[in-house]
Structure formats: structure tokens, C-alpha cells
């Protein structure tokens, strides 16, 4: 989860040779994923694997190492959907070239933004949109993708909420936008939201969800992240 001390200037000073620094294979070609070539079993057809990851794209010093690690992890675990936060344009280009089995959806073009990776063999994109947050001061938005997986309709949503302790009100405003999308989704659509919310425990306790919305709290390495999904 993002540190409160981080600034968001949106400026990207990526070295020209950055992408060459992170390519693993000697010929510069994308690394092969054994899992990506395996045909899903009948049981797996009814499952959806999803990862959400803040790539910390503004950290120039660690970016080559982080991006290389991300590609290795995704090739190893082969998830169906990946929610990404803190992307920058060079990072997007690198992921497109290295993860050729995925379709990249971008939640912005400049500065720092979110994105999604959809496995081409399992997830069919119907449409996507960027939903603006009217009062954001950090150019945050909600990235939404309507998809079909094994004949089922899903609405996938990811976001990177406003950071810093003093922006509680704005984070809650952004959460309310997400809640409205959950509430008003069609009855035949399952909605999944995940990302870097920057929400404090006290802020989450101030929120309420309808009975048809399942809420889960996941804790790892003493860092909290929240995932809400409206189940059908």
C-alpha cells in the first residue's frame, strides 16, 4: 500500500535504457509461461483467479527490479485478471511486450494511473470505461471493465484512492462512487472491486454495505487491503 509521504507529481524521468535493463531473456523476447499454455481443466473453467498489485512505478531506483519480479510472478501463477496501481507509460509498454497473453486496459495516459491485465484465453472484454472522481486532487478515477468469463457476466473495477491521512473525506467520497456501482449493477452481473484504497480501519468502519454485498478483509505482512464483491 502506498506510503503517505509519497508525492504525486506525475513526472516520469525514466532512463531511455530502462526497458533493456529489465528484460530477462538473452534475445529480449518475452519470457515464456508454461502455465499460460496449459488448457484449463473443467473445474478451473468455473474459477476466476485475480491479483491486485501496486507496482510503485514512480520509484525509479527500484522499477527495473520490481517490474522484472512482477513479470516472473505473473508468468508463474498465470492469473486470469490483474488489477494494477501506480502505472506509468513506460511500465505499461514493458508489460505489453512481456505479457503477450494478456490484454492491457489503461486507466490513464499520463502521470500515474491504474490498469488491468485480462488473460486473452479466458476473459473476453466487452467494454471498459474510466469513471472520474469529481473532487479528486490527485487525478484518481475508477477503472471499470465489463467482461465475460465462461459465459458469465462480470464487472471488474479497480482504483487507487486518494492518499495521505488528511484526505479521509475524499477517500470516503471515492468509496461511495464504488458502492453506487455495486448497488446499481444489473442482476445478472457479478461485480468485483479491488485495488489500493489507502483506507484506514476507522474509515472502513464508517462504511456500510447492503446485505447482498460480501465484504472481505485480507491482511498480509501487517498491511491491510480490502476487496468488495457483489455476488449473484
TrEMBL record:
Keyword Protease attributed: no
Low complexity bias spans: 24-36
Keywords, in A-Z order: DNA damage, DNA repair, Hydrolase, Magnesium, Metal-binding, Nuclease, Nucleus
InterPro entries: Endo/exonu/phosph_ase_sf, Endo/exonuclease/phosphatase, TDP2-like
Basic and acidic residues bias spans: 1-11
Domain spans labelled Endonuclease/exonuclease/phosphatase: 51-207
GO molecular function, a single term: 5'-tyrosyl-DNA phosphodiesterase activity
Protein species of origin: Pundamilia nyererei
GO BP annotations listed: double-strand break repair
Keyword Hydrolase: yes
UniProt-annotated location(s): Nucleus, PML body
Gene that specifies this protein: LOC102210138
Superkingdom, natural source: Eukaryota
GO cellular component terms listed in the entry, alphabetical order: cytoplasm; PML body
Protein name per its UniProtKB record: Tyrosyl-DNA phosphodiesterase 2
Cofactor annotation: Mn(2+); Mg(2+)
Region (Disordered): 1-43
Amino acid at each position: 500500500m502506498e506510503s503517505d509521504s509519497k508525492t504525486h507529481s506525475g513526472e516520469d524521468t525514466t532512463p531511455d535504457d530502462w526497458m533493456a535493463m529489465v528484460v530477462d531473456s538473452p534475445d529480449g523476447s518475452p519470457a515464456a509461461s508454461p502455465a499460460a499454455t496449459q488448457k484449463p481443466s473443467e473445474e478451473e473453467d468455473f474459477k476466476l483467479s485475480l491479483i491486485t498489485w501496486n507496482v510503485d512505478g514512480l520509484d525509479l531506483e527500484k522499477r527495473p527490479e520490481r517490474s522484472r519480479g512482477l513479470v516472473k510472478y505473473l508468468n508463474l501463477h498465470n492469473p486470469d485478471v490483474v488489477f494494477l496501481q501506480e502505472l506509468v507509460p513506460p511500465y505499461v509498454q514493458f508489460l505489453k511486450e512481456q505479457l503477450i497473453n494478456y490484454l492491457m486496459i489503461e486507466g490513464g495516459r499520463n502521470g500515474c494511473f491504474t490498469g488491468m491485465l485480462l488473460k486473452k484465453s479466458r476473459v473476453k472484454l466487452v467494454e471498459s470505461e474510466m469513471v472520474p472522481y469529481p473532487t479528486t486532487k490527485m487525478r484518481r478515477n475508477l477503472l471499470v471493465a465489463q467482461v465475460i468469463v465462461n459465459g458469465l457476466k462480470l464487472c471488474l473495477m479497480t482504483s487507487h484512492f486518494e492518499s495521505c491521512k488528511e484526505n479521509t473525506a475524499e477517500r470516503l467520497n471515492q468509496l461511495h462512487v464504488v458502492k453506487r456501482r455495486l448497488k446499481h449493477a444489473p442482476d445478472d452481473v457479478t461485480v468485483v472491486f479491488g485495488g489500493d484504497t489507502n483506507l484506514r480501519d476507522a474509515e472502513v468502519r464508517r462504511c456500510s454495505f447492503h446485505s447482498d454485498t460480501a465484504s472481505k478483509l485480507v491482511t498480509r505482512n501487517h498491511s491491510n487491503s480490502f476487496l468488495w464483491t457483489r455476488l449473484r
